[in-house]
Structures are given as C-alpha cells and as structure tokens.
Amino acid sequence: MKNIRMKVARIEREMKQEDLAQVVGVTRQTIGLIEAGKYNPSLKLCIAICKALGKTLDELFWEEKQ
Amino acid sequence: MRDLIQDERTVAQKRKIGSDTCNLLLLALMIAILVQQFVFNLPFAHYAAEFICFFGACSYLLIRNIRSGNDLLSRKNTGVRFVVLNSLVCGLTICVVTGIANYARYGDNSSPSIWLITFAITFLCGTAAALLGFSIVCYVNKKKQKTIENELDEEEDKL
Asked: How distant is the Cα of A49 from the closest Cα of chain B, in angstroms?
C-alpha cells in the first residue's frame, strides 16, 4: 500500500526524495520504494524519517482499520 | 502460540549466516586458485572448476546488484576516479603476483633489465584489462542508475 502521508509530509517540508534520503542516510531509491509501499523500512529508519519530517510514527506509518 | 517460522530476526540472521558463508567460500576459492597456480605451478585444467565457480559467482553478484539497482559506486568515488584508481590497484596486484611467481620460476635465467621490462608490460596490460572491465561495469551501473532516477522523477511528479 502506498504511503501517501509520507509523501505529503515530505512535500509540505519542501523536500525532494533526494533531500530526505541525504538527511536520513539512505539512497533515493529506498525513499521511493517506501513511498510506493514496496519496501518495509526498519523501525530505526522509520524514526529517522519521522524526525526529518517533523512527524510522529503514528502520523506517517500507522494504518487505521477501514 | 504463533508460528515462529516467520520470525524476522531469525530470518535476517539466517540470511546473514548464508551471506558470510558465501563470502568465506569465495575467499577459499580465490586462495585455492592462487595456490594451485603459483605455488604448485599446476596447469589450468587442475583448477578450472574453482576458476569457473569463482568468476561465475563474482559475475552473478555483480549482475544481481546492478539489476537490483544497487549503486556500486560510492558517492565519494564516482566515475573516472573510481575506474582509474581501481584499475591501477588491479594492475599493480597482477604485476606483483605474477612477477613474484615468474621470478621464483625463471629468476636465474634472465637479466634485471629484462625483468623490469616484463614487470612494466605486465603492469600496463593488467591495468588496461582492468580499465576496460571497470569502465564497462561503471557504464552499465550508471545507465541503470539513470533509469531508476527517471522512474523516480516520474513517480515524484505524479502527485
């Protein structure tokens, strides 16, 4: 499932995928795969992304039941 | 109690053990080839299986990494610098290894000037061959990275 919230949070911060990748220390491809829902990041990477985007884990990664 | 087969920690640990085993095996194959070739001075037919396995495994690693989109060039050492540095190191290694082996075999029969010329030719040929190999790897890797960049750009522009 695509992670639209992460993409929106990144754009709100006026960051490109490359910028976020550099801040958290991964490749741009990894950020692209997380946003596309094709890669499950580790908790460590999730926390780094949340810190970089100024959001909580819940706000970016928690899936509410439909 | 839940099924523990899918325990991600043990799965990751098993993969790490498998990866380490593969690395050790590659190292052992390389040592076996070098020892048979230079110490025991055996003909190629004696270590052909190890040779094919070693270079086959190395090629597989290289191709799988490039196809998966893993950038083989670090951000610091990109392009020309990576190719030239690695080629020089390879050329020097080939020159030293073959130089020592040849000197041990035929050291008494030739003059120092002949040896120097031989070392220089070996170094140049080794460096040129490595330069060609690394240039191809670098080109293919860059092409794949460019394709990924374009795909990511398209994906990013969609929103």
From this structure: 17
